[in-house]
Design a protein that fits this description.
Layout: E1 2-10, E2 13-18, E3 21-26, H1 30-37, E4 42-49, H2 59-73, E5 75-77, H3 82-101, H4 112-132, E6 138-142, H5 149-156, E7 161-165, H6 173-176, H7 182-189, E8 194-197, H8 200-214, E9 222-225, E10 228-234, H9 241-245, H10 251-264, E11 268-275, H11 282-295, E12 303-310, H12 317-337, E13 345-349, H13 354-363, E14 366-369, H14 378-386, E15 393-397, E16 410-412, H15 417-429, H16 432-448, H17 451-475, H18 479-491, E17 495-499, H19 519-530, E18 534-539, H20 544-551, E19 557-560, E20 565-567, E21 575-576, H21 585-598, E22 603-607, E23 610-614, H22 620-637, E24 643-647, E25 651-656, H23 661-669, E26 676-681, H24 687-692, E27 698-702, E28 711-713, H25 716-727, H26 729-735
Parallel strand pairs: 1-4, 1-6, 4-5, 6-7, 7-8, 8-10, 11-12, 11-14, 12-13, 14-15, 15-16, 17-18, 17-26, 18-19, 26-27, 27-28
Antiparallel strand pairs: 2-3, 9-10, 19-20, 20-21, 22-23, 23-25, 24-25
Helix pairs in contact: 3-4, 4-5, 10-13, 11-12, 11-15, 13-14, 19-25, 25-26
This protein binds GDP-alpha-D-glucose (GDG).
GDP-alpha-D-glucose binds near residues 377 and 378.
């Protein structure tokens, strides 16, 4: 049976030390209750902070806690000192990441000391996980407190399935870039196999940040990091629907509902439930209540607004300030509108038991959920699930992740108090028929994608990524494949090498002219070519002048401009593959120029029979947009000409139709009966070469991307090593680690 290790800042159980010794209290949080019930195939172990600082307990108590947590709660503690809690939890997590990720840059603290503690505590978590992890375990890391942990774990547990889920929003790049430690945080998360977010928007923000800061390209949510596929996907967290939808059925609940109804009398109830947090929009919401009571006086004495506020992060200054602002505003509204016998705002600053919470959900006519930013917001879903008579209205902020799923709610901009006030009126006047219609659709949706489904979906996806990684690994040139290739080479007498240049024999450089062949590259090509059994051909998109300048003293064949020009090793001059025209160049030149003028970092390369738009140093998102426009426009313009528009690696090339590297390669493959053929390339243009090889030919794609090639290597350095092994015979095998 596979074992699941959940890692989060807090354990689902809280340890308290009082006069009577140690006490264990289970948390009621959504995730905590959910994990126990989900996925039968897994036995779970939870790792996290038990809620008591290490200074408060003795060594003996530490041992006792560790043992009890394991025996009774399948949990393993990470003990944190007071300093760590201060700097890591209240500090970097809640003074840096939380405000910035919720779009409060002015509340964000950038402090190197807090960051160092964040790194240290992540490393402590890593040690704790490694102490208990076993091969085959799946590790699921939760939330913004532990963004560095996946990469730390990956270094020591390279094969393990590691997932990460972010419960809060991932901000847009413009916000994320403000962090001095932005790259480290992204790299930390990328240690995973699967990274989950609540909404598509957050996932896009994350991928954009990876693109802009690390140059990482995502394709259908997948990217290659080191040699691993990493997947980004959407998993909107669900709730334990059953628990909330049946919450009114017990005797205790019925009593609670009856007693609450007696207290509110015939009045309509508007309910809000949040942790006390500036992201939850409490002030704007109270402002909306004030406007509502002013603008629609007919509702005075007819409504009660109940605000449950759970204390949170009381050590952080912004929370203390907010608390006093709320107190003042509540006092102001109650003072201004209240009468003998009617208090408009019932404000509770404490946590209430589950039975009372759900009873409140059930008696409320309106659920008012107006965070300024919220990863998801579970209260919105819980209200919908609990209100089984369906005669309620949910007013929901468009800034909550939940808005993506609960479209039948009355959606509001939480900064627009006037709008909230007006929507309150609409909600209070909505017909039962309309309410039931809206609630039915929402209940349908959230009952289906509940917390169990959410977790199961995450597990399924992580397994799929692992499968994908295995398929990829099977194609990699591993020791077995290397040995096979080298043996075949040794046994053959007529050998053909078809080698791409940029990205294959040399790595990419920011300017094409900088990518000159290294002495090592020239040396290995020279030595390979010196063996009379070998024929080496460089098949490149470069112009023939450049190839001539770099390789003319080598005894090799060359192909320039993706197959326009050919030069056999024994020929004195270049020849054109077929008579071609290039008069079209002058017509298309102004169009390329127009794009280059508007796209900083791009430039035009002119070859004899092609025009190339290069964009490798263009800001990636601009490049993506411009390239689409450029390809569309030029494809349209060239539709009547015998031209093709071809996308390559950071280039778009316009050239004569029917000319490609594959066709050029045929000039060599068809020349004699080679008993060994090896083609290597990194680009889409090299796929044409791979496609024309005879069955016994071997092909290698540089880069771990899908390809027609039989094998993949990761980078151009691997190509050089492989070629060195060929030319140096047995000593090469030793060097290559095969013999
Ligand atoms: C983070 C993200 C995301 C509240 N008061 C009482 C009480 N609660 C329970 C609610 C709900 C939970 O606490 C609050 O969840 P939220 O989703 O609203 O907010 P965060 O705590 O900020 O959670 C958030 C979530 O992670 C999950 O991914 O949705 O966006 O910020 O379950 O019912 N429970 C009880 N008494 C209370 O007084 N018993």
């Amino acid at each position: 049976m596979k074992r699941l290790i959940i890692v989060s800042n807090r354990l689902p159980v809280n340890v308290e030390k009082g006069r009577g010794g140690l006490a264990y209290k289970e948390s009621v949080g959504g995730l905590a209750t959910a994990v126990g019930s989900f996925y039968r195939d897994y036995s779970s172990l939870w790792i996290g902070w038990p809620g008591v600082s290490s200074e408060k307990i003795t060594k003996a108590e530490r041992d006792e806690i560790t043992q009890t947590l394991m025996e009774r709660y399948q949990s393993h503690p990470v003990f944190l000192s007071k300093k760590a809690i201060d700097k890591f939890y209240y500090g970097f997590s809640n003074k840096t990441l939380w405000p910035l990720f919720h779009y409060f840059p002015l509340n964000t603290v950038y402090d190197e000391r807090l960051w160092k503690n964040y790194v240290k505590v992540n490393a402590d978590f890593c040690t704790a996980v490694k102490q208990v992890a076993q091969p085959g375990d799946m590790i699921w890391v939760h939330d913004y407190h532990l963004m560095l942990l996946p990469q730390m774990l990956r270094e020591d547990l390279p094969e393990t399935s590691i997932g990460f889920f972010l419960h809060i929003p991932f901000p847009s790049f413009e916000l994320f870039r403000l962090l001095p430690w932005r790259k480290e945080l992204l790299e930390g998360m990328l240690g995973c196999d699967l990274i989950g977010f609540h909404t598509y928007e957050y996932a896009v923000h994350f991928m954009q940040s990876c693109h802009r800061l690390l140059g990482l390209e995502f394709n259908m949510g997948q990217a290659i990091v080191d040699d691993r596929i990493v997947k980004v996907d959407i998993f909107p967290i669900g709730i334990d629907y059953e628990k909330f939808s049946t919450s009114g059925e017990t005797e205790e609940a019925k009593k609670e509902i009856k007693s609450l109804r007696k207290k509110v009398k015939e009045r309509s109830v508007i309910l809000a439930v949040d942790r006390l947090d500036y992201s939850k929009g409490l002030l704007k919401r109270l402002e909306a209540i004030e406007i509502f009571l002013k603008k629609y006086p007919e509702y005075r004495e007819k409504v009660i607004f109940i605000q449950i506020t759970v204390p949170s992060r009381e050590h952080v200054d912004h929370y203390k300030i907010l608390k006093s602002q709320i107190d003042t505003l509540v006092g102001k509204i109650n003072g201004q509108f209240g009468t003998i016998g009617w208090v408009p705002v019932w404000y509770l600053y404490r946590s209430i038991p589950f039975s009372r919470l759900t009873a409140l959900y059930q008696i409320s006519d309106v659920g008012l959920v107006t965070p300024l930013r919220d990863g998801m917001n579970l209260v919105a879903k819980e209200y919908v699930a609990a209100k089984q008579d369906k005669k309620g209205v949910l007013i929901l902020s468009e800034m909550a992740g939940a808005a993506a799923e609960l479209g039948e709610a009355l959606i509001v901009n939480p900064n627009n108090s006037e709008e909230i006030a007006d929507k309150l009126k609409i909600a209070l006047e909505m017909t039962d028929e309309e309410k039931i219609k809206r609630f039915s659709s929402m209940q349908n949706r959230i009952s289906h994608y509940n917390i169990t489904k959410w977790a199961a979906d995450f597990f399924l996806q992580i397994d799929k990524v692992k499968e994908l990684q295995k398929t990829m690994a099977m194609k990699e040139v591993n020791d077995r494949v290397k040995k096979k290739l080298l043996t075949k080479y040794a046994d053959s007498s007529r050998r053909l090498f078809l080698l791409d240049y940029d990205g294959t024999l040399v790595p990419f450089a920011d300017k094409p002219e900088k990518a000159v062949p290294s002495p090592a590259t020239l040396d290995v090509l020279r030595k390979l070519a010196a063996d009379k059994r070998n024929e080496v051909v460089i098949i490149s998109g470069r112009d023939k002048e450049t190839l001539k300048a770099w390789f003319s003293d080598l005894d090799i064949g060359m192909v320039a401009e993706h197959g326009v020009w050919l030069k056999a090793r024994d020929a004195g001059s270049w020849k054109m593959i077929e008579p071609l025209s290039n008069t079209w160049k002058k017509d298309l030149w102004p169009i390329l120029e127009y794009y280059v003028d508007r796209t900083p970092g791009s430039f035009i390369e002119e070859k004899d029979f092609s025009l190339v738009l290069h964009y490798r140093t263009v800001e990636p998102e601009l490049a993506q947009r411009r390239v689409r426009e450029f390809v569309d426009e030029t494809t349209h313009l060239t539709s009547n000409l015998a031209l093709q528009v071809m996308e390559g690696n950071k280039v778009v090339e316009i050239k004569n139709q029917g000319i490609n590297k594959g066709r050029a390669a045929r000039h060599w493959t068809a020349r004699e009966n080679w008993d060994f053929i090896l083609a290597i390339g990194d680009d889409v243009t090299d796929e044409d070469v791979f496609s024309i090889l005879p069955e016994h030919g071997c092909s290698i794609k540089v880069g771990l991307r899908p390809s027609l090639a039989k094998y993949n290597v990761e980078r151009s350095q691997d190509v050089l090593l492989l070629l060195t092994a060929f030319e140096s015979g047995n000593s090469g095998l030793v060097k290559y680690g095969v013999k």
